[in-house]
Amino acid sequence: MAPAAESTCAKCGGSGWVIQERDGISGASRCDCRDAERARQSERNARIPPLYQNASLDNFLVPSDNPVARTGLGTALLTVRAFVREFPTGDKPGLLFIGDTGTGKTHLAVAALRALIAKGHEGVFFDYQTLLDRIRASFDKVSGASDREAYSTALEAPILLLDDLGAHRATDFTEDTVTAILTHRCNFKKPLIATTNLPDQDVTGRAIEYITPGGTPVGKKTLSEVIGMRARSRLFEMCKVIRMPAVEDYRMRKSR
Ligand SMILES: Nc1ncnc2c1ncn2[C@@H]1O[C@H](COP(=O)(O)OP(=O)(O)O)[C@@H](O)[C@H]1O
Ligand SMILES: [Mg+2]
Ligand SMILES: [Zn+2]
Known about the structure:
Layout: E1 17-22, E2 25-30, H1 32-45, H2 67-86, E3 94-98, H3 105-118, E4 124-127, H4 128-137, H5 145-156, E5 160-163, H6 172-187, E6 192-196, E7 209-211, E8 217-219, H7 223-227, H8 229-238, E9 239-243, H9 250-255
Parallel strand pairs: 3-6, 3-9, 4-5, 5-6
Antiparallel strand pairs: 1-2, 7-8
The structure holds adenosine-5'-diphosphate, magnesium ion (MG) and zinc ion (ZN).
């Protein structure tokens, strides 16, 4: 027996076209079921990790018990909604989420990508570390096709989601590669959605001190120390920056 999901569309009988009458003249127009099928295919192409497959703007919760988190996360959510609504004509072609682990950066970044896919755009999710490992592997003679494609995908994907930017040891290779990707995308105004848990430098250019959950202040490397000044400046040029508020790690909040 054929699974229910494959049943033919009642509106168009599976042809993809519906006949509509307007002012006494009948004509064919595309059936909605084709848009839904296209969106499902684009979501598969986007390679969103299973953990975030259902992350959406609608299931991003804004806590009511903590005013700081409420305002901060509420503003973040509104900014993402506005970005999606205006896309692709907004003033910046990208979003950059900065904040600690567990504050919902990847959730919101994926939600934005999925909302854009639902609007008919195409994009791809890449974990930063995986991307750099693949690009490096592609220089090996024995590398597979998927490694070789990684670099061109990062350059050319209509929308690139780069998750956990800077989560890779800083080497000349990583700095050069990320600079090349960001410069190319910036020059061609290619949309980028990125997340990072590295602090940005403060106005004096010094690293912001980072307090561990145990309360110990440690000097954390800044974004520009890890990805380089040039890549950082491209990133800020093309992205609207969303600073996540200091909220308790969502995973821990939920397990309480
Ligand atoms: N405000 C929120 N509402 C609903 N789910 C959330 C929220 N914040 C985080 N999550 C969920 O908690 C988990 C961790 O969030 P994640 O986006 O991975 O955080 P980050 O990328 O900042 O480390 C994910 O499963 C995510 O869907
Ligand atoms: Mg994340
Ligand atoms: Zn149909």
